[in-house]
Specification:
- The protein has twelve helices and 13 strands.
- The strands form four sheets. The protein has a five-stranded mixed β-sheet. It has a four-stranded antiparallel β-sheet with strand order 5-12-6-13.
């Protein structure tokens, strides 16, 4: 597993953590995709004080680290938060979308109505997006495709259908593919008039009970960093994202400022509760 963070000076990636050195430190799991850059980059560059070590990984890896107890807090997929039940959320922060997002995309050679029984490849790095796709296909169309974990060597254009997330979805979409595209966030918003919450930040309830002040200060730091990342530090965020992708500055600016939503309002909580109910309805989330 690669634990990486943006390098402060050059904007490249560098492994900045030695497990032996930080084992006793307060550690905060952070998402390694560019969608989290408005939050994590101001923290890495120390524009906002954070009394914790940041540990970077993809959402699936972070979920495993939280489950094993290697981490007591951090970013996690919405589905993992709902499934585990042992976390409280840091307030006022999420990675969400209130309309098209561009980084959770279903590409297909077929119309959605023709996907019943078809094979759809899904990413190993996400639980929320897979369950979300299943819920929408079942609830809207009564369709249940055959899901297979994506093979890293698979050529996306040769697949019947594939779900792509994060940086890979953005770049494949920008490549000019002729496959039919469905933005799951846009589909969800059109149907339910609610945002969709991809990821949240939370901490184990027992850890919070013993570290209430730390929980509050870390939550405040996350929100303060996000405000900077979307304003005075936006140019640095876009530059870092450019170094990791082939996307243009204009596309990245619209992605961060228009497509993504970093709030956690009552509507976001309502959307999260609806997602849980629908997952339970179709047996995707245990009661």
């Amino acid at each position: 597993m690669s634990l990486v963070s943006p390098q402060v000076e050059s904007g490249s990636l560098e492994n900045k953590h030695d497990k032996a050195e930080v084992a006793s430190a307060t550690r905060l799991g952070q998402i390694s995709f560019i969608n989290a850059l408005p939050i994590v980059l101001p923290l890495v560059r120390k524009h906002v004080r954070l009394d914790a070590e940041q540990v970077f990984a993809n959402p699936a890896e972070l979920n495993l680290m939280l489950k094993s107890g290697e981490l007591q807090m951090g970013a996690m997929s919405s589905f993992y938060f709902l499934e585990d039940g042992g976390f409280d959320l840091f307030p006022d922060i999420s990675i969400s979308g209130s309309g098209k997002v561009g980084s959770v995309l279903l590409f297909s050679k077929f119309a959605l109505t023709e996907l019943d029984g078809k094979t759809v490849s899904v990413p190993r790095s996400s639980a929320t997006s897979i369950k979300w796709m299943q819920v929408l296909l079942l609830e809207e169309l009564g369709i249940k495709p055959n899901l297979v974990l994506a093979d890293e060597d698979s050529k996306t254009e040769e697949l019947d259908a594939c779900l792509l997330i994060g940086d890979k979805a953005l770049e494949f979409d920008a490549s000019g593919t002729t496959l039919q595209k469905t933005d799951l966030a846009q589909w969800w918003h059109q149907r339910y008039k609610l945002p969709f919450v991809f990821g949240v930040w939370g901490a184990r309830k027992e850890w919070i009970a013993e570290n209430r002040k730390d929980f509050e200060s870390i939550g405040e730091a996350l929100v303060a960093a996000c405000k900077l990342g979307l304003s005075s530090q936006l140019a640095a965020v876009i530059s870092e994202a450019q170094s990791r992708t082939s996307l243009s500055p204009d596309r990245l600016r619209s992605y961060f400022l228009e497509d993504l939503d970093y709030r956690m309002t009552m509507s976001h909580h309502e959307a999260l509760a609806l997602f849980a109910r629908l997952c339970r309805k179709y047996g995707l989330l245990r009661e």
